[in-house]
Design brief:
Order of helices and strands: EHEEHE
Strand content: 15-25%
Number of domains: 1
Strand order of the largest sheet: 2-3-1-4
Radius of gyration: 15 Å
Structural class: alpha+beta
Largest sheet: 4 strands, antiparallel
Shape: globular
Number of strands: 4
């Protein structure tokens, strides 16, 4: 039986399919943006893959939020913001249990993993995934 988990993050994880590291001759800035967002998505999938074999069932999409309960309290100062979300399925949800929380091991795996900050992102976001109460920038929930 598959278990569906939803990920929310403040990092741009738009799936662009740009995996080539060789820059094209034209439009370098657009290519770099697409490559960076793809790298961020790949990074989160790689962290999830440390303990499971995720199957992405809903590609990353950008959503506007006004409820910052998912994220650290430093982000509560803004009225609305954007975040990215996607769904994935795993076969055994117990792989993320740490004895305290159902997804505790997944959160611990994510903490301090470097990410790529883009020019249009909030200056409050650190350059790595963070699970601390004040700077939390990634959130998972079982759907």
């Amino acid at each position: 039986m598959a278990h569906r988990i939803r990920c929310f993050t403040l990092f741009d994880i738009t799936e662009t399919g740009v995996a080539n590291r060789n820059k094209p001759d034209n439009n370098d800035k657009m290519w770099l943006h697409k490559r960076s967002t793809q790298c961020n998505f790949d990074t989160i999938l790689q962290v999830i893959s440390l303990r499971s074999q995720p199957e992405v069932v809903a590609k990353p999409s950008r959503v506007e939020i006004s409820n910052f309960d998912y994220f650290g309290f430093v982000y509560e100062k803004t009225e609305t913001s954007r975040c990215w979300t996607f769904d994935f399925e795993i076969q055994h949800s117990s792989v993320f249990q740490d004895g305290i929380s159902e997804l505790g091991a997944l959160y611990n795996d994510c903490d301090k993993v470097p990410m790529i900050l883009l020019d249009d992102q909030s200056e409050l976001i650190t350059s790595s995934l963070n699970i601390s109460p004040e700077l939390k920038n990634i959130y998972f929930e079982v759907v």
